[in-house]
Design brief:
The complex is a heterodimer of chains A (91) and B (359). By secondary structure, chain A is of the alpha+beta class. In chain A, 16% of the residues lie in helices and 25% in strands. Chain A starts with a strand and ends in a 5-residue tail after the last strand. In chain A, 31% of the residues are buried. With 359 residues, chain B is mainly beta. Classes of the chains: A alpha+beta (91), B mainly beta (359).
Chain lengths: 91, 359
């Protein structure tokens, strides 16, 4: 089942717990939206105003970097893990 | 007179308080995080952490002293027919906060050029859309510490809250007289030296480093422009170049005197290619005759190997006009209690200073 893990760096600013979304396949965008439903303040830390991934946020789906950072259309298997890190670029 | 300063730096927000022994650091907040703007309005403090990874943020300290994160100023969804817009529809940086005489109203000037308004002291924000959707806004361009244009200054007419003037770096001076529904570029008389000759007098490519308005005489507005100092006596409609500036006319910061329309302060630097104090001597320049002449103030400031640059929001004057403070890119902070005649350095090595504000 998709589980979304957030970097512990976020805990400096706000609660960012791991979220278990259940066993259905979905897109990365749908997975993040489901997390933000329960944790709305997290959204602006991960996404920009247009809903794209922030430039210095890294997201891995099933161990691979997310490909579609704009529309977040990457498929997420029902048993995949999503990891949200701060990128090693700039920042 | 104000006994408290807020200093926004690359590594946190610092409170500098006046004690019987002088000025000292009294508290720090957001230690480690860049703070891009700070202002205290009606007993509450707004601060803008500019988190490198997680984007710009906005926090408010209420009158009881408790900090809480507020809703972010957010751009609307970018329409499909805006593909020719060279600038992102995403908040890049909150650059300044400006109060209005209307209770609870505050403006935020931002990069990439959005003006946001709050009517509840920063809890919620809305984009001033007529300015953002003005077709000439796409002609703004970015030199302001990055690739994006930014609203460097917001002036709210103390006589009429519907009269708002903004300075854009780079995009000229814009004004509304109907509370934000309609906007016009108004900076007649400004000239630049960084555009082709036939465009140097055009309105939009004027790089407005900072505007400052005399609160007691709001028609008097000073501008530290990229190319020179300008002064207007009709609320920004027409401008006259102030060519008596010493030791240079280049700089970022300007502060108008709160009551004397003839007095203003600047922190000059060697233009434009170097952007360091001329000859390594850090000075403040002051005019007391409307720009006809300038005094170069150096008492208490380092006069040897000083390479401090002072950003546009990093010079402040209190409501008395006697106390001033400025902070530098090298983390220096100097305070004057005699209108700039003499300065005392804060005994601290602060991170690079973005903004200074009397509470």
């Amino acid at each position: 089942m998709p589980v979304v893990h957030f970097t512990s760096q976020l805990e400096r600013f706000l609660p960012a717990p791991n979220v278990d979304l259940g066993g259905e396949p979905m897109t990365l965008g749908a997975a993040l939206a489901a997390v933000f439903d329960g944790h709305p303040a997290l959204r602006s830390y991960i996404l920009d105003d247009q809903g794209a991934l922030r430039r210095h946020v890294a997201v891995f789906v099933g161990g691979r970097p997310a490909v579609d950072r704009i529309k977040l259309s990457d498929p997420v298997d029902g048993d995949a893990e999503i990891h949200v890190f701060q990128a090693l670029s700039g920042g | 007179m104000s006994d408290l300063l807020h200093v926004a730096t690359r590594k946190g927000l610092f409170e500098i308080a006046r004690t019987k022994d002088g000025w000292d650091v009294a508290a720090s907040h957001f230690l480690g995080d860049p703070i891009s703007a700070v202002a205290t309005i009606d007993g509450m403090t707004l601060a803008a952490p500019d988190l490198g990874h997680f984007g710009p943020k906005l926090w408010r300290r209420d009158r009881a002293g408790t900090w809480a994160e507020m809703a972010m100023p957010t751009f609307p969804e970018k329409p499909e027919d805006a593909e020719d817009d060279p600038h992102p529809w995403t908040l890049g940086r909150i650059w300044n906060f400006t109060p209005s005489a209307v209770d609870g109203r505050v403006y935020a000037g931002t990069m990439p050029g959005g003006l946001f308004r709050s009517d509840d002291m920063g809890e919620t924000w809305s984009l001033v859309e007529p300015l953002w959707r003005h077709p000439d806004r796409k002609k703004w361009f970015g030199v302001a510490g990055g690739e994006m244009p930014g609203i460097s200054s917001v002036l709210v007419d103390p006589r009429d809250a519907n009269h708002v003037t903004v300075g854009v770096s780079t995009g000229g001076v814009w004004s509304t007289r109907d509370g934000g529904d309609t906007w016009a570029v108004i900076n007649k008389g400004m000239v630049n030296e960084y555009m082709p000759p036939d465009q140097q007098g055009d309105s939009i490519p004027q790089d407005i480093h900072q505007l400052s308005q005399c609160p007691a005489h709001p028609d008097v507005v000073w501008c530290q422009h990229h190319s020179a100092i300008f002064r207007s006596t009709d609320g920004g409609e027409n401008w006259v170049m102030v060519d008596a500036a010493r030791p240079t006319g280049f700089g970022f910061a300007v502060q108008a005197h709160p009551t004397d329309p003839e007095t203003a302060w600047f922190v000059p630097a060697e233009k434009d290619e170097r952007r360091i104090p001329l000859d390594g001597k850090l000075v403040v320049s002051r005019t007391r005759d409307g720009g006809k002449s300038f005094e170069v103030l150096s008492k208490g400031l380092p006069q040897k190997h000083a390479y401090d640059l002072v950003y546009r929001h990093a010079l402040a004057v209190d409501e008395s006009g006697e106390r001033l403070a400025f902070g530098s890119t090298s983390g220096g902070l100097w305070i004057s209690e005699d209108a700039g005649d003499s300065w005392a350095a804060l005994d601290a090595r602060l991170p690079p200073v973005a903004a200074v504000s009397f509470a």
